[in-house]
Amino acid sequence: MAAKSIIKSGQALLAEPFMLDPYFKRAVVLLCEHHDQGSIGFVLNKTIDMKVNDLMQDFPNFDAEVYYGGPVQTDTLHYIHNLGDLLEESIKVSPGVWWGGNFDKLKFLINADLMKPENIRFFVGYSGWSGGQLDDEMETGSWVAAPMDANYLFKSEPTGLWSQIMYDKGDLFEIISDMPEQMTWN
What we know:
22% helix; alpha+beta
């Protein structure tokens, strides 16, 4: 019988250092939903060369980057923010981190200058797993679970996020955090 999953909503998932899948190589995924029916998360450290206004015509002028959330439904836009209940219908994922919320209220908050680009991250697509799939990937060592900190999302530089969270886990993970992305023989 398989061991009970150690992962839960609100955690960060770090791709193991040698993962070759181009979608998830050195990825940090915020797991927003995890249950028996499946899992949903967003890649936090893969930027795309696009601003939110490049994607939507009927949206307030807002200088916010768009990130690659994952390979599922790349024609959808999602957002994670730190405004909590100020954005109605948001789902609390972890301390200081909320997912989604009322889209019309989001536009209102932006127009009222209550939502700043540093308060929100937009994602094209998402990362999804069917029921039991993520647990299986954890058992085979594809992912390393880590505590999520809102500062990772809103204060850290995305390009160094994988190494930062690995280092913050301590012990052996500190050593892994320094591994170069491309290993070559001398």
